[in-house]
């Protein structure tokens, strides 16, 4: 009997334990269900929608760039492109293998796909732009064999006047691995391009626009069933430039005979850039769809550096052009009057060192205007000794040298105006008087860009008002304070003898640029020739009869001319630098004459 009672108690206890366990388990399940359905419902709803919805981007059209007359310089062309939808491809290798038998794929496309997937994990990758009709037909016919491959409409950047405007407009390209590391989410969208140089780069935030998107319902295999919603993209803003494409084209053709050169043409009152060329040029369209290795290596190893915008990045000894700075400094300080004379015997001896004049037999006695017209070195050697390097440097900076001009382009260089403290800091050595003498003719450490030379001459010929060179018409669509208001840096009286000297330099028979004068009376130009050495003529060279560097192209002097027109009422300025072009009067001055004459013919009619 007792055994039976004990068995019943054991069964009852186990029953209670099992029942309690079932209650606990049931409670846990109910609690978990409540937690999922009540507190986590929104989270799982989003996940479910994420699995059933696919978002595809709509790329915006990039803004159009036009010249001062509305001529299109940068636009977008429509075409068909092949896109890879990574979500819809279970066997990427097989898909690409099939694709490669149907269309010709871009060079290194497998490497590009690998880079894109490693850096941004995109849903879509552009396989090829600008499909031909035959390629579109093949892809559509074999669509069932190409899971994930789609043919869509796209656009690509196109530059109708490619070689004329390459250094100003620049080019666009797919973002690099470094670009993709930035916080800009827009550039991580497949197919987006960004400006990599020129205005395309500096104005990229304005030009790029805002992407839109399609929201699609998809099945379990991520295949699109229907489009639920479309938010259109917003095109980028357009840019109107001060550039005259007709003049830009003329300058491009005029520089065609030179190996390496640059030109800036500018309105002296507004600072509007009318033409800005660097030669040789390149085709920016090569970059729009991915430049080939062969083309890239060809540009990179070209000895005349076509990828560098020499008009803003080339730094050259300004040579005799710098004599105008010395003359202005001397007049401003009251050290001389325009009638002040010096005698030039062909050299100046200081501390047992002989500094030669460009004319070895000497110019005789000259005043300031004739010294400018004949480009006498000795006259300005003597002024420099009276002034000292600090006063010369101060005047140079007031005229815009030694600092960036602020033009809307990247990679602008500042040039160099040396001082005693600069040399002490740079080389740990004191300044010598001979260096002041050399600086007075724009040699030694002095460096300037063609754009700075143009700005300097513009401020001299406009009566001494500061200007900021600009490529963008009007106040500009971008943020920022805009160009600074013009400031008067010197009295017009200071510039009167300077302009008389530059007038004589071109239009008087004693002038260095007389052979390059403009014959039309109402279009005549003034200016200053300059020949800047890249190699010093040694005593041994002079003894052997070598007075110029003519042996090889790289040792030849730079040919420089900066002029303005019309001479009676200046309106335009042109700076021409021909690398290793020899005499300024023989190479750069004739180019500047043709450009200033054409500028007046083109722009006075516009």
Structure in words:
This protein is an alpha+beta fold. A hairpin with a 2-residue loop joins β14 and β15 (353-356). It is elongated. Strands 2, 3, 4, 5 and 10 form a 5-stranded mixed beta sheet that branches. It is 38% helix and 18% strand. It contains 23 helices and 19 strands.
Shape from CA axes? elongated
**Major beta sheet, specifics?**
5 strands, mixed
Strand content: 15-25%
Overall average residue pLDDT? 88
Structural class: alpha+beta
Distance between the ends: 125 Å
Global Rg: 35 Å
Please name the defining characteristics of this protein:
elongated, five-stranded mixed β-sheet, 23 helices, 606 residues, five-stranded antiparallel β-sheet, alpha+beta
Kindly summarize this structure in a few lines:
The chain is α+β, with helices and mostly antiparallel strands and 606 residues long. Helix content is 38%, strand content 18%. The strands form 6 sheets. Strands 2, 3, 4, 5 and 10 form a 5-stranded mixed β-sheet that branches. A 5-stranded antiparallel β-sheet has the order 12-11-19-18-17, sandwiched between helices.
């Amino acid at each position: 009997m007792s055994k039976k009672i004990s068995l019943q108690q054991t069964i009852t206890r186990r029953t209670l334990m099992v029942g309690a366990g079932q209650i606990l388990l049931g409670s846990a399940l109910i609690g978990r269900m409540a937690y999922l359905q009540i507190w986590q419902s929104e989270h799982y709803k989003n996940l479910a929608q994420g699995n059933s919805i696919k978002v595809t981007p709509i790329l915006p059209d990039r803004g159009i760039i036009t010249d001062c007359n509305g001529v299109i310089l940068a636009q977008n062309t429509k075409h068909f492109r092949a896109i890879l939808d990574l979500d819809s491809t279970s066997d990427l290798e097989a898909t690409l293998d099939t694709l490669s038998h149907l269309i010709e794929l871009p060079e290194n496309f497998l490497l590009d796909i690998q880079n894109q997937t490693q850096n941004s994990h995109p849903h879509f990758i552009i396989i090829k732009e600008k499909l031909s009709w035959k390629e579109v037909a093949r892809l559509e016919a074999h669509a069932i064999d190409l899971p994930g491959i789609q043919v869509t409409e796209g656009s690509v950047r196109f530059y109708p006047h490619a070689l004329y405007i390459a250094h100003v407009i620049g080019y666009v390209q797919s973002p690099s691995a470094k670009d993709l590391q930035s916080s800009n989410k827009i550039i991580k969208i497949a197919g987006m391009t960004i400006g990599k140089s020129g205005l395309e780069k500096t104005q990229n935030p304005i030009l790029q626009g805002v992407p839109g998107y399609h929201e699609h319902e998809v099945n379990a295999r991520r295949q699109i069933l229907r489009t639920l919603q479309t938010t259109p993209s917003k095109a980028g803003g357009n840019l109107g430039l001060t550039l005259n494409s007709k003049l830009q084209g003329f300058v491009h053709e005029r520089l065609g005979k030179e190996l390496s050169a640059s030109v800036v043409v500018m309105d002296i009152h507004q600072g509007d850039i009318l033409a800005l060329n660097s030669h040789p040029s390149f085709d920016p369209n090569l970059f729009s769809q991915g430049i080939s290795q062969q083309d890239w290596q060809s540009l990179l190893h070209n000895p005349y550096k076509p990828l560098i915008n020499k008009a803003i990045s080339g730094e050259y000894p300004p040579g005799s052009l710098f004599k105008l700075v010395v003359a202005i400094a001397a007049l401003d300080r009251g050290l001389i009057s325009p009638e002040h004379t010096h005698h030039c015997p062909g050299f100046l001896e200081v501390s047992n060192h002989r500094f030669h004049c460009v004319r070895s037999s000497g110019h005789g006695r000259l005043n300031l205007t004739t010294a400018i017209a004949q480009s006498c070195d000795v006259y300005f050697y003597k002024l420099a000794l009276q002034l000292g390097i600090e006063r010369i440097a101060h005047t140079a900076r007031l005229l815009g040298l030694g600092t960036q001009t602020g033009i809307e382009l990247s990679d602008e260089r500042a040039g160099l105006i040396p001082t005693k403290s600069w040399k002490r800091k740079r080389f740990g050595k004191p300044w010598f008087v001979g260096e002041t003498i050399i600086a007075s003719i724009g040699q030694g450490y002095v460096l300037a860009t063609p754009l700075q030379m143009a700005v300097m001459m513009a401020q001299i010929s406009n009566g001494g008002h500061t200007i900021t060179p600009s490529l963008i018409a009007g106040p500009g669509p971008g943020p920022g304070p805009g160009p600074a208001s013009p400031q008067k840096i010197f009295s017009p009286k200071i510039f009167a003898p300077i302009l008389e000297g530059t007038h004589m330099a071109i239009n008087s028979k004693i002038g260095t640029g007389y052979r390059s004068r403009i014959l039309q009376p109402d279009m005549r130009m003034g200016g200053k020739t300059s020949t800047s050495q890249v190699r010093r003529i040694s005593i041994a060279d002079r003894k052997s009869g070598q007075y110029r560097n003519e042996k090889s192209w790289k040792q030849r002097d730079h040919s420089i001319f900066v002029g303005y027109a019309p001479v009676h009422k200046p309106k335009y300025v042109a700076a021409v630098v021909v690398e290793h072009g020899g005499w300024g009067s023989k190479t750069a001055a004739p180019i500047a004459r043709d450009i200033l004459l054409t500028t007046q013919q083109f722009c006075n009619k516009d």
